[in-house]
Write a structure and sequence with these properties.
The protein contains 11 helices and 12 strands.
């Protein structure tokens, strides 16, 4: 109890009341004690274990890109606090498809499903699959990628505003030739990033479509360097790592010669070399909106079937600077 009390910043008497299920403890204080219990690795007493209100599926594309585990972790935390048991389903090349995962979840009687960067974000995919899910009485929410043909709540970052902000940042540093490295054009977030980028550059910036991966970022950055770009905005942080690799393969330095801006800001990218300037997705705010919308739907309350848009934040670190050839002697 002393360890838990010290970690939670409360008295041992308060810890005792929480562990014994006694009343008279504020909800926020009770949550701090339970969090300390979990962080320190102690097992919760049986009386404190919540009974699940139901299963909620979370369908995500992969776990190799750190932004997806970041979303998954917060979604799971919010669901558990609300009494629901999350079921994580991950796609992988050659593995189960989104449709197959949905079938498995529905067969297990899930109460609802959260889709993160799924087929709803692919403009070539048939949105009818989501209408069928609605017809089966399964509420769902979609994160990252809007399709007006799908009747459900959507939660997205403002991708167009993000790339505009990145271009503004690079221009303020003195960059004039700025390029954009993004994923395949068929994805809604890609289209929005390109639209914001071209709007801010007056249609003059170079755009290279590739894969949302380190290798994709490297290939796109190589083409942008050939086009004379000194500033590169990337569609993801993983792509930005590839861009840094491409710059160094040319014998150039980031940021002295070339500046690189990422997108997402999962927790690892403050520790890269150099630390990555990036556009931070507001993961916690987006997640809370998505889960709350889903729970309202589960409880039979009317939720507006529209898109809730959140503003990314520019986080300036060490991968952007004034280009070397424009600095004063």
């Amino acid at each position: 109890m002393a360890d838990i009390a010290q970690h939670a910043g409360v008295s041992e008497a308060t810890v005792s009341r929480v562990l014994n299920g006694k009343s008279g403890v504020a909800a926020a204080t009770r949550q701090k004690v339970l969090a300390a219990l979990d962080v320190l690795g102690y097992e919760r007493p049986t009386r404190l274990r919540q009974r699940s209100s139901g299963l909620v599926g979370l369908v995500i594309p992969e776990l190799t890109n750190p932004i997806f585990p970041a979303f998954a972790q917060v979604i799971e935390q919010v669901l558990v606090r609300s009494g629901y048991t999350p079921v994580l389903c991950t796609q992988s090349p050659g593995g189960a498809t989104e449709d197959e995962l949905v079938e498995q979840l529905v067969d297990r009687g899930v109460t609802g499903i959260i889709f993160l960067s799924g087929l709803h974000a692919d403009t070539t995919a048939d949105p009818e699959r989501y209408a069928r899910l609605t017809g089966r009485g399964v509420p769902f929410v979609l994160i990252n990628g809007f399709n007006p043909a799908i009747k459900a709540p959507f939660v997205s970052p403002d991708d167009a505003a993000a790339t505009r902000r990145a271009v503004q940042h690079l221009r303020a540093l003195g960059h004039r030739d700025i390029g954009l490295a993004v994923g395949p054009h068929r994805f809604v977030p890609t289209q929005r990033k390109v639209a914001g980028f071209l709007d801010e550059t007056g249609g003059q910036g170079a755009v290279r479509h590739t894969l949302f991966s380190v290798e994709g970022g490297q290939a796109a950055a190589a083409a942008l360097l050939d086009a004379g770009c000194t500033g590169i905005v990337c569609g993801s942080d993983m792509m930005a790592l590839g861009a840094v690799r491409a710059v160094r393969q040319r014998g150039l330095e980031v940021p002295d010669d070339i500046s690189v801006v990422g997108y997402d800001d999962s927790h690892l990218f403050a520790f890269t070399d150099p630390p990555l300037t990036t556009l931070r997705q507001p993961v916690r705010a987006m997640t809370s909106a998505a889960v709350n919308s889903l729970l309202e739907e589960i409880n039979g309350n009317l939720v507006q079937h529209t898109e809730f848009v959140f503003q990314p934040e520019l986080v300036v670190r060490g991968s952007t600077a004034t280009p070397r050839d424009t600095r004063l002697p």
